[in-house]
Design brief:
The complex is a heterodimer of chains A (114) and B (114). Chain A has no helices and 11 strands. The model of chain A has no long low-confidence stretch (mean pLDDT 94). In chain A, a hairpin with a 3-residue loop joins strand 4 and strand 5. Chain A is mainly beta and 114 residues long. By secondary structure, chain B is mostly beta strands. Chain B has no helices and 12 strands. In chain B, 35% of the residues are buried. The mean pLDDT of chain B is 93. Classes of the chains: A mainly beta (114), B mainly beta (114). At the A-B interface, strand 4, strand 5, strand 9 and strand 10 of A face strand 5, strand 6, strand 10 and strand 11 of B.
């Protein structure tokens, strides 16, 4: 089954404790992206990657890191989480060619930073 | 920069009736794509419908159709024969080809009443 998976789905942590949220897709998509969703703000892009070893900042990159060492994986790293990073996080992927831009989303990761 | 505006935070509709969700956007791109995503209580992001800007014909997917007014930069979603399962938050989004970024509106909460 074609899908985007994220782990963990739910996470409670404390300020300053490094964490990683994994994202994996099995559709051979070149493009992958991370979004965060906050009430009243919709979804905002954190980082994106157009292919292996190619990453760039989105609209709200502060406090986050990413890497793209393999085509299928795009982990999101919070080196020192803070309470303002409490949010719902989505990973998404798509092909990067004209006419095939529909992005498919993972199930979401709900993060609470105390 | 792209912007997407959903000015109605909430709407309600009686089961079996028709409802229209509004969305306006702004972009400097000549080639772009527009999407409606549904987010039910499970929080999964589900693609409802997409529209290519270069196509004059409005997209249709079963009970879902759009009214795409390119000159007015308007992209509304019409849901016919509303069902209880349509209760969800709906997000309008625009896609730029340059970095495959999706820009989302703030979303609208739709409630379908039995």
């Amino acid at each position: 089954e074609a899908q985007v998976t994220q782990n963990p789905r739910y996470l409670i942590t404390v300020t300053g404790k490094k964490l990683t949220v994994t994202c994996s897709q099995n559709m051979n998509h070149e493009y992958m992206s991370w979004y965060r969703q906050d009430p009243g703000l919709g979804l905002r892009q954190i980082y994106y990657s157009m292919n292996v070893e190619v990453t760039d900042k989105g609209d709200v990159p502060e406090g986050y890191k990413v890497s793209r060492k393999e085509k299928r994986n795009f982990p999101l790293i919070l080196e020192s989480p803070s309470p303002n990073q409490t949010s719902l996080y989505f990973c998404a992927s798509s092909f990067h060619r004209q006419g095939a831009e529909t992005q498919y989303f993972g199930p979401g990761t709900r993060l609470l930073v105390l | 920069a792209q912007t997407v505006t959903q000015s109605q935070p909430e709407m309600s509709v009686q089961e079996a009736e028709t409802v229209t969700l509004s969305c306006t956007y702004d972009t400097s791109e000549s080639n772009y794509y527009l999407f409606w995503y549904k987010q039910p209580p499970s929080r999964q992001m589900i693609l409802v419908i997409r529209q290519e800007a270069y196509k004059q014909q409005n997209a249709t997917e079963n009970r879902f159709s759009v009214n795409f007014q390119k000159a007015a930069k308007s992209f509304s979603l019409k849901i016919s024969d509303s069902q209880l399962g349509d209760t969800a938050m709906y997000f309008c989004a625009s896609h730029t080809g340059a970095n495959s970024k999706l820009t989302f509106g703030k979303g609208i909460t739709l409630s379908v009443r039995p």
